[in-house]
């Protein structure tokens, strides 16, 4: 299945979509330098204003919030790396295909490795059944073209992820193929979590042994997107205060989402258990880690004592003084403030045509392993 990622379609449509570009070298990113005393951001009407804009799509500002527990303040990447190196797992949430985010990921990984040599890279962009081929590449047994012929790389691998993988390869650092295979996720979305019970024994290990499907903020958030009502987490036709039972399709879609979250969490935990003393940097789409939900809460369920930090991207950098909401400050340990990507569609007609095409592809999907 093609792994092209699309953005800014309605969330109900986003449930059926998968990510993305190719190789190029670009100038190093810039980050906003904080004042010497790094004062807290000014606050107006409940929002926090950064002192200056983010200049372009390769640039970013880092704001430390400690999940809303500390007054937000702009910090340097070096200062952030000093603090993040104290954590066991550092999750770098991303907006897929965003140059500023991918620049920051590379800089974070390099600086964190400089502070802790036993560092591992965990990636949503590789799947468990690809681990053997990935290991062969990291250890130099096969070349990149051979790897690409054996496993399907994301379309933007060359520009977005190759730098991190090559850094890990050069420094002999493990790379964890953390995600569940796309086909497994698709089958769970079509048939529900019962599909996992009928997988062949040699395939069952491709997904987490246990899925955490319980009610809670993450499920509410997902169901809100699934119904196009992110504010209430439920049926958009429900009356105020009313929360209707989600459709069977939405329940299966949540199970598919959780298959990714639990598998990534389990992959990281298994790696840490097998390799005491290592720390992990994990790359994932930010929905999986925003507000310390998704993969993060599933990590903590498996290893409660684990110290987990989250860097969350916030697309707010195109204003003269970018603003952060109070909700934004609670979404991560650090916020990576970036300029928004261009709107993918100029008209509603364009968007409807794209949705129609994607829905047509979905109807042709089959559950085949």
Description of the structure:
The protein is of the alpha/beta class. It has a single domain, classed as Rossmann fold. 37% of the residues lie in helices and 15% in strands. It has 13 helices and 11 strands. It has helices spanning 11-14, 77-84, 99-115, 131-138, 144-150, 157-170, 182-191, 201-204, 217-226, 248-274, 295-302, 326-329, 348-364, and strands spanning 42-44, 47-49, 61-64, 73-75, 89-94, 119-127, 175-179, 279-285, 308-315, 323-324, 334-338. The strands form 2 sheets. Strands 4-3-11-9-5-8-6-7 form an 8-stranded mixed β-sheet, sandwiched between helices. Helix 3 runs parallel beside helix 6 (157-170), helix 7 (182-191) packs antiparallel against helix 10 and helix 10 (248-274) crosses helix 11 (295-302). The longest helix is centred in the last third of the chain and has 27 residues, at 248-274. The protein is globular. The protein starts with 10 loop residues before the first helix and ends in a 5-residue tail after the last helix. The model is unreliable at 1-30 and 230-234 (pLDDT under 50).
